[in-house]
Fold these 3 entries.
Entry 1:
Amino acid sequence: MRLQIDEGVPQETPAVFIERCQSLGFSVWRLDVNGMAVSDPRAPAAIRMWLSSPVVRRLLVECAEYWSTMDEPGACEPSPGLWVQPVPVEHRGRRIGFCVLVGFTSKVLGTDILREGVDGDPLALAALSHTIGGVVQPWDTIGETAQLLLRWVHEDQRAMQELEQSIETCTDQLSESYETLTAMHILGREMGSVDDPRSFVEQTLELISVTINFRWAGCVLSDGAPIEGDRVVQSGDLEIEPERVQELLRMIESSEPIAVSDETTVYDSMGVLPELEPQVIRHPIRARGTHFGWLVIGGKRGEDSYVSSHDTKTLDSISGILASFLENAMLYEEQRAMFIGTVNALSNAIDAKDPYTQGHSERVAMLSEALARSLGYDDEAAQRVRLCGILHDIGKIGVPESVLCKDGRLTDEEFGLIKKHPTIGARMLDGIPSLTDIIPGVEHHHERWDGGGYPAGLSGENIPEIARILALADTFDAMSSNRAYRDAMPREKVFAEFERCSGSQFDPAMVAPFLALDFGPYDAAVSRAKAQTKIRAAA
C-alpha cells in the first residue's frame, strides 16, 4: 500500500485513512525518509508524549534506515510488543517519507521501553500503561481486524463503483444535451427555408430519430399545414403505411396515456404497430392557436427501451421549432399568394385594355417557364422567369389606350409610344426588392440578337438571358394570335419564321429548344381565352 499526496500539500495524510487506523487502535505518525517526525503523533495524550520521547524516536530512526533499503517496506517489531507498520508516502512519484502505524500487543506492558520513555515517572508510567492496555491487539483478534479491513475495502469499492456510474450517467446526459443542442442549431439554421417546408419537416424527423435514438419518427399533418402532398411524413429505420399511422393516431386519441409531460403524452404501442414497441410518444405541433398536426415517434433503441424525461423534453423543444417554422411557412405562402394575385391583377388589367391580347401575358409566362426548364433552369429559377412573363408588358399602363387599342396599323409616332413600354415597366418595378432580378427581362424583351431591337439596341449575349427567353415566347404568342390588322398565322408558318430569324432576331441556341416544346398547354390556354372573349361579347 502507498499513499499519494496531493500536489502542493505533501505534509497531509488523508483524514479518512487516519480515522480508520485510530478506530482499530493504531496511532498514526508521519516521518520523513530519515525517520524524523514531520508532525505530532495522532494518538491519545499519554501515548503521544511517550512516542515523542528520545528512546522511541531513536528506534523509529533505525526502522526508517531499514525501510529506506526496501521497495516495499514491511512491519517490524523494534521492541517487544511494539508493532510498527510503515506506509510509504509519495509525491510526484518520489518517496518523501512514511506514514507509520504504531500498535501494541500485551508484551509491551511492563517492558523497560515504557519506563525509559517517561523517565521513570511512576504516575506517567501508570497512565501510559493504562492507555496502552486499552488499545493492545491480542493476536487472536487478528481475524476480526482482517474482516473489518475487508469490509472497508468492499465499501470503498462500492462507493467508487457508484461514483463511476454517476460519472458515466453524467457523461451520457452531457452527450445527449450536446446532441440536442446540435439538432436545434441545425434546425435554427434552416428556419429560413420556408419555400420548401416538406424538406424541413423531413430533416426535423431525421434529427429526432437520431438525437433521441428512436427507430421511427413521423409527422401527421393537419389540413391547415402549409405542405402539399401526403399528410404523413416519416423518417427512421422503418417505412410504415400512412393508413396504419393514421389508425395508430385514432387509437391514441381514444386511449389514456401512461405518462404526461407538459403537452407530451406517452402510450403503450397497443399492438397496432408492433414495430414501435414498447412505447409511443405523441406531441402536438401548435403555434399561436393554429394546429399543424402531430409528432408521433416510437421504437426506442438502446438498452433502455422506455421513454425518458430527456426524450420528452427534447421532443417538446424540437416541436416548438417545427411549429414556428410551419407558422412562418404559412405566412410566407399567404404573402406569396397575395403577391401573385396582385401581379395577375395587374397583368389582367393590361390585357383587358386590348381584347386582342386577352391572356397574352399568361401565355407568354407559360411558354417562358417551359423554355427555361428545357434550358436546365431549376424550379425556383423557372418560376422567376414565369413571373417576368406575367409582368413583361406592365409598362403598357403608360401607353395611351387610343394607341394600344387602335384598329389597323400604327403610325411611326404611335409605334414610338408603344416602344416606350419596356422602359416604363422597368421604372414601375424599380425599387421593389423582390422583383429586382426580373427587371432586365421586362426592360429588354424587345431587343434583337442582331442589335436591331429596342429600347437599348443590345445585341448577342449582351442581352440578358431572361430577356432572350421572353423574346421568343412574346413573339410566338403575337404571331399565333389574332390582331386588329391581321389574323393569327398558321403554326407551320410561325415555326418557319422562327427558324428563318434564328441568329438575327432570336438567340440561335434557344430556337431549337423552343420549337421542341409541347404546345398542347398553350393551345388549351388560347382556347380558354377565345371562349371568355365570346362570353364577354355576348354579355
Note: The longest strand covers residues 94-104.
Entry 2:
Amino acid sequence: MIRREFLKKLLPAALGTLFFESRGIFARVLPNWWNSQASELMVYREGSSYGTPIPTWLRQNNLYVGAEQFARALDFHTYLNEAKRKLVIYLPENKIIVTADNPFVIIDNRSLQMPVACMWEQKNIYIPLVHLVGLVNRYSSLSLNYDETRRELRTGSAVEKTASGETQAGLMEIDQKKNGIVIRIGVNRKLEPSEMKLNTRYNWLHVDLHGANGNIAALNRTPVQGKIRELKALQLDRTLSLSFRLSQLPTSSKIYQDQYTREVVIILRYEAELAEADLPELDTPAEQPLQEAPPDAAIQKQLEKERKRWLIDTVVIDAGHGGKDPGAIGVGKLKEKDVVLAVALKLGALIEKKLPGIKVVYTRTDDRFIELRQRTQIANESNAKVFISIHANANASANASGFETYILGPEKGAQASNVAARENSVIQFESAGSQQHYEGINAILAGMAQSAFMRQSEHLASGVQTEMGKRLRSLNLKNRGVKQAGFWVMVGASMPSILVEIGFITNKYESRIMKTASHQQKIAEGIFYGLEQYKRDHENAI
C-alpha cells in the first residue's frame, strides 16, 4: 500500500519529465521566435586563437544567446537559480546577475536597464547580446569586442599592464546619489584594511592605497561633477594616492574593498539631499539605474521573510552506516562507519565555526544504526536546504583508488552501479517490514523525484569535488569526478543532495591515511569549502 502511494506521487513527475525529454529530443518544439535561428557566434578568450561556437537566435531584430553557453565559452563560473529564474555570472573581477523576463541587469550592486528583456526557455536564460556587451564594457573591468559582421566576440581586460607585466588600476567610477557619493576604484590585488587610508583636510578628500599601482593618466581622465570639483591621482612608489576636491565635506565617510570585484569602495554621506543640478545626467534609458519606490514596512518585512525562506540555513550531515552495519571493511579491519563518522563530525564543526548562521543536523553522532529512509526523513523534517551523505568506497581490486561525489540519478557505467549496489545493501540490516518499502520502486523513477534539485545537486557536487581535489592533490589521490547513481539514502530528499565517497578503504595506502585525524580534516575542509561556494552562489541568485 505504501509502495503504491509512493509510486502514485512519482509517476506524474516521471511522465512529465519523460514528455519533456522526448519533446526536446524528437519534436524540438520551441516558441515561434526560436525558429529564427541565426548563424553561430564564435567566442574567443583573450590570448587564444581557437574560438568556441555558440548558437544565436533572433527575436524582433535582437540577437540572443544562451547565458550559460555564453559564460561557459568565456570560461566564467555561473550559478542558476531555477526557482527565481536568475543566473549569476562571475567575471574575473565583477559579478553579473540576469533575470528571465526582466530587462534589468545587476553588475555588482548597480541595477542597469536594457531596452529588451532576457528570455526563459527550457530552463535556460537567453540574453540580448549587443545590449549586455555594452553594459559589461561600461560597468565592469572586462572588455568585450563584438564584430557583428563576422559574428565574433573577443575578450580583453580594461585593467592595463605596466612594462613589467604587472596589472594596474585603470578604472574609477563616481556615482552621485541623492544623499551622497559612491566612488569605485579598480585595483590590482586584495588589500588589507590597514592598507586603505581615508581622511579629509579642508575641502579635500585624500585616499591612499598602499601596495596598489595605478594608471595615472586613465584615472585623471575620470569625469567629475556634482560635489566633486577636482580629482588628482599620483603614484608614490608603491602607493596609489587620490585626492578629491569637494564643494562640501561629507557628514560621514567609509572605505572598504568589495570581496567579489576587489574594487575599493568609498562612500560619502550627506545629511541634506544634493541639489537637482548636482545629479548626473544619464545618456540613455538603457543606462538608468533602477528606480523603485521605497516599500512600506509591511512589504519590506514580507520581502525579507520570503528571501529568508530561500537562504541555506540548515544542513544535514549523514555519516553512512553505523551500529550493526559496519559498512565496508578495509585494510587492517578499518570500518567504514568509524571513518565517515569522524569526517562528518569534523565537517559539522567547520560549518558551526565558519558559517555560524547555519544550523547543523546530524543523522547520527555516535555508533548507532539508522535506516536509509529515516536519514532523508530527518532532513525533510528539519527543513534542510542541503543533504550531504558521507561514505568510504570499496572494491575487490586493492588497486582501486580515489575519491568521487555522486548525485541521485540513473547509473551510468558498471562502476557506478556497483557502488550504488554496495551502499544500498544496508537494507539487509533493516527489519522485514522496513525492507518492503524498497520493493518494486524503480531507481530511475525514484531519481526523477530529485529532478527539481538536479542542477543544484550537480553544482554542489562539482564544488565539493573540486575543493577536495585541491586539498588532496599533494597526496596523489585520484580525482574520480562527479557521477550519478541510484542511492536509496537520497531517495525522497526534498533538497539538493550529494553522496561523497571519500576514498577506497580497501586500498592499502588510502586506508592508512584515511584513519588519521589530519586526513579526515582535509576531507572535511574540501566538503566544507565546496558547500560554502554553493551557498554563496545560491544566495547571490536569490
Note: Residues 1-33, 158-168, 273-295, 440-450 have pLDDT under 50 and may be disordered.
Entry 3:
Amino acid sequence: MRILIILVLFSSYLAQSQQPPVLDRLVTIDTNTIWTQQDGYESSDFKVDGIDYFKIIDTTYFIKYRNKGYYLSKDGSGYKIVDIPDMNRYKPAAWDVPYDDINRILGYEFDDENNKGNYRITSKKEGKIDSIGVHVYDPGRNPSIHTGGESNIYLLAYKEGNIILYADYFYVNEAYKNKRYSCFMYNILTDSIKSLSEIILPNAQISTSQNYINSYNPNKIEEYYNRFDNADTYNVYDLGKQSKVNGVLRYGVPNMQLSQNSGFLINDSLAIALTYDTLRIYNFHTSTPIKSYFVPDKKFFGNYFYDDASRSVIFNYVGITDGISYNSVIHIPSLNIIRDTVNNKPYLGRILTRLDDGKYLSHGSGGYLYKFELDLGLDYANADFQAELIENNTFKFTDISKGPIVKWSWDLGDGNKSNKRNLEHKYIKSGIYNVTLVVENEFGSKDTVVTQVNAEDVLSAFYSADILGGSAPLSVSFVNRSFGEATKFIWNFGDGKSSLKENPVHTYKSPGTYSVSLTVFDKDGKFDIRLLDDLIVVQ
C-alpha cells in the first residue's frame, strides 16, 4: 500500500525570506519491499539509478541520489522515498539529512547577487522551516556567474548542527572564464561558518566514527594567467572537535598525478589509496605507507565497504583480468589481502552493509538492491611450524601458520607446554618427541599439526674433577659429563698414566703441573676430545 504525503511550506515562511526557500516541496512515499528468491541470492523490486552515498543512521539506512532519498529499514522489508523536486536551480540538488536527526531535511544553494555569492541554507523538519541562513561570499572585483547549470553545489550533513557546504563557481576576467570552488563548515546552532580549504566535497567521505573527512585533491590552481597542476594529494581534516576544525593531514605519493579519486579512510588511523599500479595502506597521521600491494591492470575503486564482523575492507573494481572485474578483501588486523572474488554475479555490485540476519546488502545489476551470503575466506586456520636444532638438544620452533591467528598452544612432547607464538626448548634426554601445535583464529576456528623432532645430542667430550690441587700424594676423582651417547672412554692424566673407566679415580705421586684429556667414542666410532692444560697442580 502506498501512502502519498505532500507537505507544502506555508506562505508566511516565504514572506519572511527575501528569496524563495530552497525546500519548496517535499513528497514521501511509504513502500513495502518485495524480495524474490534466486539461485544463491535474493533480488528486490527496489531500484535506484545511482547512489551518491549510503548512511547508517540509528535504525535506518539512508541512500541519497540527486533529488531523491530512500529510507530503508534495517531488515530491508520496506523503504520510504523522499522526493524534493525543483529544490534549487542548479543540479545536482544540494540537500541531505544529518546523522543525528533523520527527520530533518537540510538544503542550500549558491547564487550570485550584485556580483557576490550567496549561500542560502534551509532547514526543514516535520513540514516546517525552522531556520534559514544567508551568507555572502565576495569573489572580488570579478563577478561570479551561474547560468545554464554551470555550478555544481553539494551539501553533506554532519552532526551536532554542522553541515559541510561546497560550490563550484565561475568568475569572468575580460575574455576569460575561470572556475573556482569554496568549501565551508556551517554550524546551524551558532549561525557561524568557517572555511575548509583544500577540501573538494564531491571527492570526499567521512570516516565511520565521523571524526575525520577525507578528500582527494588534484591541486590544480590558477595564479593570474598561469595554471599549475601540482601533485595530487589525499587531505584529511580532523572533525572530532566541533568547536575547532584542526589542520589538514596529507598522504599520498610525491609527484603523484592520478586524475581520479581512489582513496578512502578505513578507520581513525588507516587509509587505502590506489596510486599508479600499487595499492597502499597508509597511516595518514604520519603520511607513511605501512603496506603495499602490486595491482596489475588497475582500475580505480568503484566503492568499498568496511565489514565490522570480519574486520575487513571489501572494495570493488580494483583491477581487470581477462576483461572481468574483480573484488578484493583486505583483512585489517593482518593487513593481508586474503581473497579475490571474481565479479561475475548480478548481486556483486556495490556492497552497502551487512543486515541483521548476516546477509549482505548490495546495489547490483540494473540498479536493484540484492541480499546474499558471502564467504570472504577469512575464517580459516592452517597450523604449521618450523623446527631447527640450534645446539645440543635445543630446538627453535617458529610458527608459520596461515590465517588471522590469535592463539598458539604448544605441547613439546616431554611434558612441557607453552602459549608463546615462537620459542626455544632444550630436551634433557635424547630421543624422538612428538611436538604438537594448536592454533586458533579470531573467529574461534582451530587447527592442529604434529611434527616429530629427534633430540639426539651431538657427541661432545666434557668432564669435571673434585679437586684441582694439593700435596703429594694427591687423589683426584674424575666424572664424565660428556654430551651424546658415549660408549668408550680414554683418560690421559698427564703423568704417563691412563684409564678406560667412565669415572676414574687417579693418584698423583710426584709434585708437578699436569694436563688432563678425555676422549669419548660413540657406537659408530665417532669421537671427540676435551684437553684441559695445567689442570692439576701437585706440591
Note: The chain is about 0% helix and 55% strand.
